[in-house]
Fold this sequence. Notes:
44% of the residues lie in helices and 18% in strands. By secondary structure, the chain is of the alpha+beta class. Strands 4-8-9-7-6-5 form a six-stranded antiparallel beta sheet. The termini are far apart.
Amino acid sequence: MEKCDKNILSYINNQTWKINCSNIDYECKYFKDYTLIKGEGCNEVLLLSLMNDNMKLAEENSVWLNNLFNNRIDDFKSNCTNINITKINPANVGNRSVSYEVIDEKTIKYSMKIMKRLEGDNIEDEILKYLTQKRLTNIPKYVCNIKYKNYLYGLLTEYIEGIPAATYYINSSIDFLKYGRFKSIGSLIGKNLAILHKALSECQNKQCNKEVINDDTIEKWLYRILWRSKYLRNNIDSFNKEDRNLLMETIDSIDELLEINKSNIKNFIGKTVMRIHGDLHLYQIIMNENNIYFTDFEGEPYKYPSNKLEKEMIERDLAALTRSINYASIMALQLLNEVNLKDAINLYDSKSLIWERDSANDIINSYLKSLPDSLIENLDDFNISLSFWVFERATYEVLYELIARTGYHYIPMNALIRMKEGKDPYYKI
């Protein structure tokens, strides 16, 4: 590896998936047709390949991609050797990966995700492979993967036609605010989530089998939240004055809620944790006229100070969905009133809260009704557990939105303040 050309660095700095860090060390390995680039900074490792002739992502070049599939690219290993791609269409550019619709010579369409981070705790391919073997119908079926050394680099799955459930829920909220009409696909989501959790609970390998919650588990969860509070406090000077006041109120809310939860979550000792989806927001659910599908089993990108291999209580997926409904509610206010995010939050009122409550209830009630006895016995403290995980998820969201620089940190910050004030429909402790 050697020093990277400044044009390469300029290209990277203009991309959504760049590392948001002031000090990044880059190295380049130059080949005849492409360049392999590795960047390290702020506890993240970026990896990508660029074509030398046009400085485009190498995976968008069919010759390079098929060489990758057939194990003709140094340091990569693929089990996609029976697939020959003829067409590549970029579908979504994320903060840490790029997704494509790809078509092979038999005109079969697939979804392809190429990671822009090297993460030892990303086992999305293994989870999808297991669920595909279980014949689940509410996931994109696993096809094959590509590894860079021992890291997951690329994932090919069945292509699912449809729209994100987030789009449906944003429109549902607008419809409710304008006309008082309530519509929901919550019963379908809840039922399918119960099916997913049942399948995951039956997994026997070490990365997803059940474990019993003990004192150490509880301490890890409490430390996770405390660490995030300290992280925010240590970075308070990087905010402008107006946002600094909001951040201080958020930190105070986290600290107060953490103290309240310390004794309550002792009730979880003796219950079980397992592999769950791990980052189940409404943009991870695709819907069409036939079904809903859970996608992106990668887990939370910035689950600091934890890692994505940690097992969780099943209520945590429900908590992530209820928090995502809050996001949809604010986005609906933005669109309906044609205002910015801060102004939309200021318009948030009891009518939006009613829509959120009813939308989340639809999912939760259907989920509990569909859950098998083998899992429901773990839910005798369901309200306490859901409240805790709604709180914990909101602390994660603040951290994620700030590190990824999405601008959406105002949503979970305001939610945490509402929780402290007793005004959140799903924080009831």
